[in-house]
C-alpha cells in the first residue's frame, strides 16, 4: 500500500543535507515544505542546538520544485520517455531484471543504494539485492567519499566511524588538526562549534592545499602539495617520537605494532617532508609541538584526505598519529571523519549497502551471521564480496554487468571521467533509476521511478557522530511519486517476496534484530523524548548508546584483545603528475551554497543567486603567467576532456594548483578527473589531476 500522510503542518525532523544532523521543526502546508525553525528545547537538537546553516534553513525549497518527477517513465522504442502507470513500470522493471539474471546469472545485476534516503530505505535496497535478486553486487556512493576512512579506522581501531561526539568533544577540544576539510562550507554548523572554541582559546592547526575558510581562524595554516599527505603525517609522528612527545603509557598499555610504525616513519625526515609535501620544517615542528602540548586533540578530515589513490594510507597515518599522542577514548579528543551526506554513516555504511559487509559491518562470509539472516529472510545472503561502484561501471563496459537499479545516486556526474561513466551506463541492457529529479544518470535510464525526499519522509538518519535520529514528514511527495521504501517493497513483491511492512518502524525492528550495533534502537526510544537520538553501538533496549568509542585507560578497541593497531602507512605518488603537456594540478571540492552533484541546490534560486555557475580558482602568479584575468572564461583541459569555466583569481590556491567545485553539470569537473583508485577502498583520486589552461580572453 502507498504511504500517505494525513494533513501534517509541523514536524520535528533531521536536516536532509549534511551529516552534522541538525534538528529543527519543519513546517508544511498543503503537501509543500514551507520553512524551518529551531526546536523548543536545545536538548532535542544535540548536534546543533538552535543553529542551522543556509542549506538547512532555505535549501528545502527544492522539494516544491516544478521539475520534480511526478510519474513513472518508461523509454519507448523511439528512445523517448513516456509516462506510465506504477503497475506498468514496476512490472517492466521486475521482468527485465529477472530476464537478465535468467540469461546471464544473478550477478549480472547490481544495486546502488542512496546515502540520502533513510536507514530503513537503504536497508531494504541491500535486502532487495541480497535476498530478492540474490546478487552480491550492492554498493553506494560512500565508496566515493569516506570508504578509505572506513578501511583505515577498521584496521586500526576496529570501527570505521567517528570516535567522538560533535558538541561535547569536537566543541570542547584543546587543539585541532584539520586537513582536507573545507569545514566552514561543507559542515557549517560543525565549523561554528570549532570557531567558537578557538575564540575561547583552543589551538587550531590546518594543513591543506587551499587556504579555505577555516584556515582564516587557525593558529597555524600550512599549505600542502596535493597528494602527499602521508609524508607530513609520518613526519609529525617521527618528530613526536624523536622528541619524546609520544604517549608511551598509552602506547604500551593499549596498542600493538608501534615498533613497525616507528621504523616506517624514520625515512620521513623534515627535509623529506618538505621535498614531498612542501611543508617547511619549522611548520612541521610547530604543529607537532602544538598537538603534543594540548591535553585533548581532535583530528578532523574530509574528502581532501580520503579521495586519493592512497586515501587509506592517509587515514592509517592519521590514526597512527592520534594513537602516538594517545588522543582517543576520552572526552574532547578523537578521530573525526566529517561525513558528507545526511545519512552516509547509516545508509551508506551501517545498513550494509556495501559489497563486503552486511548491516552492522557483519561479515557475509561468516556462517553464523549468514544463517542468522537466512532465518529471517528465508535466503542466505551471498558470502563473497561483490563489485564496488567503479568496478560496476568497468564491468558494464566489458558487458559482464547488464542491469542496474540505482536509487538516489548520480554516477553520471559524480564518477571520475564522466565520459567513461556515461558510456558504461549506456552499455547496460537495462537501467532503472529511482530519484526525485531527471538527473544526469536518469537521462541514461530505461525506466525512471519518481521518489520522495527528506521533508516527505518518515524514518531515521544516522549522523556523522553515529547518532540515530528520527526523520518526520511535513510534506507529501508530488503527483504519483512514492516513498522509496514503498517502491522497493513493490518491486520485491513482483519478484516473489512479500515483505509486508506497513511503516518504516517495522523495518527498524528488523534492523535491530539482525544488527547488533543497532540492537537497542527502536522508534519507541527515539520518540520517547528522553534519548535525543541513540549513538551506536547500542546493544540492547537497556543500553544507553555510546557517546564516544574506546577508552583511554582500558583500551576497549573493537578487536578481541581490545588493543588498537598501529599500521605503517606509505603514500608514494598520485596517479597523475604534472608534466610539460599538462603542467597544473587540479583539485575539486564544495562550496557553501551547493550540495554534491547540485541536483537539489541548483533548483533553489536563493542558493543559485550566490553561486550560479562553475568556476576555476587560479593563483595570481599562475594567472599572470597564463595571461588570465579575474572573471574571464578559460578552457581547462585534461587527458580526459575539457570544460569552459570562469576564472576566479585568488591566493586561496597555491601557485600551480587549480580548484573547481563539483556541483555543476555545465563545466563539470569530473570531465577532467582521472580514474586512479585506492587499491584497498576503491575510492577514486578526485583531488589530483593534471590539467592545462587556455585563456579565452575577455568575453
Ligand atoms: Fe543541515 Fe548540515 Fe547545515 Fe546542519 S550544517 S543545517 S545538517 S546542511
From TrEMBL:
Q: Which domain of life is it from?
A: Archaea
The UniProt GO MF terms for this protein read: 2 iron, 2 sulfur cluster binding; 4 iron, 4 sulfur cluster binding; formate dehydrogenase (NAD+) activity; metal ion binding; molybdopterin cofactor binding; NADH dehydrogenase activity
Gene Ontology terms: biological process: formate metabolic process; respiratory electron transport chain
Cellular component GO terms held in the UniProt record: membrane
The protein's UniProt keywords, in alphabetical order, are: 2Fe-2S, 4Fe-4S, Iron, Iron-sulfur, Metal-binding, Molybdenum, Oxidoreductase, Repeat
Which cofactor does the UniProt annotation name? Answer: [4Fe-4S] cluster; Mo-bis(molybdopterin guanine dinucleotide)
Residues forming the 4Fe-4S Mo/W bis-MGD-type domain are 8-67
Belongs to which family? In the C-terminal section; belongs to the prokaryotic molybdopterin-containing oxidoreductase family. Belongs to the prokaryotic molybdopterin-containing oxidoreductase family.
Q: Which named protein is this? A: Formate dehydrogenase alpha subunit
Organism, scientific name: Haloferax gibbonsii (strain ATCC 33959 / DSM 4427 / JCM 8863 / NBRC 102184 / NCIMB 2188 / Ma 2.38)
